Amino acid sequence: MTIAKIDISVDIIVRTRDGVALILRGSEPYKDHWAIPGGGVELGETLKGAAVRETKEETGVDVPLDSLHLLGVYSRPDRDPRGHCITMAYVAKSYDGDFRAGSDAKEVGVFKMGELPEKLAFDHLEILRDYEIWSYHH
Q1: Phi, psi (degrees; rounded to nearest 5) at 63
Q2: In the prediction, which pLDDT does 124 show?
Q3: Which is it for strands 85-92 and 7-16: parallel, antiparallel or unpaired?
Q4: Residue 76: Cβ within 10 Å count
Q5: 28, 107, 115, 126: which one is catalytic?
Q6: pLDDT tens for each residue of 23-82
Q7: Theoretical Cys-Cys bridge with 38: which of 11, 18, 133, 138, CB 3.0 to 4.6 Å?
Q8: In 98-132, which positions are buried (b, 16+ CB within 10 angstroms) versus exposed (e)?
Q9: How far apart are CA 80 and CA 48, in angstroms?
Q10: How would DSSP label each residue in the chain?
Q11: Does the annotation count 57 as an active-site position?
Q12: 112 and 18 Cβ atoms separated by less than 8 Å
């Protein structure tokens, strides 16, 4: 019997007064593409705990655990070229401080929804479009 491996990750949309924070990826896959901050869930970690950790590692922002709202679950088997990865996308409460790129992020940028960069990683355009619809109701 073969047991297939499925990875679990989190993506965190950090809202600001001027748009949403995205990171410029410094490593493959999608090196030099913009992405929603996020990454893999570690063994023994909750999904929201991973979201808090990944946001801090990639943007320097401390996101309060209770400020995270689940936007959706994205599970298309081809969404990550490294293999099947299911991600939970969260929206964090609005943040208006300074960002500091870290981990595998080369840069943090803030983009208006109508002015997103052309080179987006993974299925992040789909997630951001879902966020745009969600934001009209919240």
Answers
A1: -95, 125
A2: 98
A3: parallel
A4: 13
A5: 107
A6: 999 999 999 999 999 999 999 999 999 999 999 999 999 999 999 999 999 999 999 999
A7: 11
A8: ebebebbbeebebbeeeebeeebbbbbeebbebbe
A9: 21
A10: -PPPP-EEEEEEEEEETTEEEEEEE-SSSSTT-EE-SEEEPPTT--HHHHHHHHHHHHH-----GGG-EEEEEE--TTSSTTS-EEEEEEEEPP--S-----TTEEEEEEE-GGG--S-B-TTHHHHHHHHHHHHHH-
A11: no
A12: yes
Residue 14 structure tokens:
């950090």
Is pLDDT above 80 for 1?
Answer: no
- For the chain, domains (ranges, CATH) are 7-137 (3.90.79.10)
Residue type present at position 110: V
Locate tokens 């355009």: which residue? 125
